[in-house]
Specification:
Number of helices: 17
CATH topology of the largest domain: D-amino Acid Aminotransferase, Chain A, domain 1
CATH architecture of the largest domain: 2-Layer Sandwich
CATH superfamily of the largest domain: ATP-grasp fold, B domain
Largest sheet: 8 strands, antiparallel
Radius of gyration: 24 Å
Number of strands: 22
Structural class: alpha+beta
Number of domains: 4
Distance between the termini: 48 Å
Mean pLDDT: 93
Strand content: 15-25%
Shape: globular
Low-confidence stretches: 485-489
Bound molecules: ligand MV4
Strand order of the largest sheet: 13-12-9-10-11-14-21-19
Length: 508
């Protein structure tokens, strides 16, 4: 087993990996950019090294610097977390070339699966069902038209280098095809430096269900069941859960075996995810693979009891899988709400600044993976995800009730968060019935947070908001050693709670 590893990331995921290291008795080395000097991951790590200016291109994306620091600090491996360099095959290769271990899949698998067309081809060859469409890049507009007619409209044009919803175009009628092909190719060329495009049958309102897999370096691969990830907004997942309300034991086995087959076909090891689209008849089709530890991994951890982050590190160090497929079982339901520093009342505009007040929920069935503490700064430079709230329940209803309880206990002031939005989604009748699709938010919450108050209620809200704002101002001032900081007494927590209740009563 490793003695020391470097975590090439920040925020909640860096904290998550530090926790895994600590439980394994491994020293965790953090890295930080200028603005992250005082971040939680830096505080929690055993050692921390400065790697450059705040923009990620100058710090968290600086491959040479990260490798240099890892060597200097005496690390044996690098965990990339998610985002940044996690799915960069060149980085994985460089790390290994420098005699360090990349804590993730082999560079060859990242490369293969990163090319969405190559991935489709590989999976189809392995006998895995993919969405009907082409395996070769479209050469001419005439060829595109021929294929589209054969598949039948609506079709979807995708970029080989795309993924995660980037560079896609739905075409419903023949007359729009040529223009869409042209636009998609030129967009793909500028966004991914790869103009290759292909066509798929467009599935209307599918569900997004993904299977977590784990594979070791000895060719053993197992699956940890599915996550339902249909609740997303503009290709950003909002709420995930496991198990999926539509997947039964039989379907789990079938999807799981398909995902294992997919991993083997790609020469995969370490943790990974196979994404599937599921149509209204519960047919599932391979969509793409995620070659990283995913944001939503905790829901799988909660229902299986398997620590995926620790397993990743064990696998990378050369240990065989700790579990056989028969050892994996699922209990209850886990739900995750992603907490973004975004204002749901203002078109989800990113919100930055100092967290002037911070209180986390606790109690039965609650897990908080966050990168925050009271007084910390939320910078503008990175992803707006600041934390995740995960609840477990004996069944889906209990997990939902717990989530509502936990969200109401989660107090973050100083920056706007998506917490109030989550509360509304959890109250949605369709959500409660498990009737989910990738169009759910668009259809049910097109305006973001719903504010449905009478005029006098709005006045009350304004009053409470002003009080809360005053509260924050005072805290910010004293935290910065403002002119009144010394004479300011600590807030009366009863008063604070009263004001919060006032806000909560009006759904704030
Ligand atoms: C699709 C699709 C419907 N039909 N492909 C979006 C992200 C990218 N990974 C693939 N995506 C989709 N591909 C076919 N043939 C619908 C989507 C899609 C989607 C998929 C997963 C999660 C959310 C989504 C939201 C909109 C569209």
């Amino acid at each position: 087993m490793f003695k020391k590893i470097l975590i090439a990331n920040r925020g909640e995921i860096a904290v998550r990996i530090i926790r895994a290291c600590r439980e394994l008795g491994i020293k965790a080395v953090a890295v930080y950019s200028e603005i992250d000097r005082k971040s939680l991951h830096v505080r929690m790590a055993d050692e921390a090294y400065f790697i450059g200016p705040s923009p990620s291109t100058a710090s968290y994306l600086n491959m040479e610097k990260l490798i240099e620091v890892a060597k200097k600090a005496g690390c044996e491996g690098i965990h990339p977390g998610y985002g940044f360099l996690a799915e960069n095959s060149a980085f994985a290769r460089k790390v290994e070339e420098q005699g360090l271990v990349f804590i993730g899949p082999p560079a060859s698998a990242i490369e293969l699966l990163g090319d969405k067309m190559a991935a489709r081809k590989t999976m189809k060859k392995a006998g895995i069902e993919v969405v009907p469409g082409t395996e070769e890049p479209l050469e001419t507009e005439e060829q595109g038209l021929k294929i589209a007619r054969k598949i039948g409209f609506p079709i979807l044009i995708k970029a080989a280098g795309g993924g995660g919803g980037k560079g896609m175009r739905v075409v419903r009628e023949e007359k729009d095809l040529k223009e869409a092909m042209r636009a998609c190719a030129s967009e793909a060329k500028s966004a991914f430096a790869d103009a290759r495009i292909y066509i798929e049958k467009y599935l209307e309102k599918p569900r997004h269900v993904e299977i977590q897999i784990l594979g070791d370096k000895f060719g053993k691969v197992i699956h940890l069941g599915e996550r339902e990830c249909s609740i997303q907004r503009r290709h950003q997942k909002v709420i995930e859960e496991s198990p999926s309300p539509i997947v039964d034991e039989k379907m789990r086995k079938k999807m799981g075996e398909t995902a294992v087959k997919a991993a083997k076909a790609a020469g995969y090891y370490n943790a990974g995810t196979m994404e599937f689209l599921v149509d209204s008849d519960k047919n599932f089709y391979f969509l793409e693979a995620n070659t990283r530890l995913q944001v939503e991994h905790p829901v799988t951890e909660m229902v299986t009891g398997i620590d995926i982050a620790k397993e990743q590190i064990r696998i990378a160090s050369g240990s065989p899988l700790s579990y056989k497929q028969e050892d994996v079982s699922w209990k209850g339901t886990a739900i995750e709400c992603r907490i973004y520093a975004e204002d749901p009342e203002n078109n989800f505009l990113p919100s930055t600044g100092m967290v002037s007040h911070y209180e986390e929920p606790a109690g039965p069935g609650i897990r908080v993976d966050a990168g925050l503490y009271e007084g910390c700064e939320i910078p503008i430079y990175y992803d707006p995800i600041i934390g995740k709230l995960i609840t477990w329940g004996a069944n889906r209803d209990e997990a939902i009730q717990r989530m509502k309880r936990a969200l109401s206990e989660y107090h973050i002031s100083g920056v706007a968060t998506t917490i109030p939005f989550h509360i509304q989604v959890l109250d949605n009748e369709k959500f409660k019935r498990g009737e989910l699709s990738t169009h759910f938010i668009q259809e049910e919450f097109s305006q973001g947070l719903k504010v449905t108050l009478e005029e006098d209620e709005l006045k009350m809200v304004a009053l409470f908001a002003a009080l809360a704002e005053y509260q924050n101002k005072k805290r910010v001032q004293s935290a910065f050693g403002g002119k009144n900081s010394r004479v300011q007494e600590k807030e009366n927590p009863w008063k604070m709670e009263g004001r919060r209740r006032g806000l909560r009563r009006f759904g704030m």
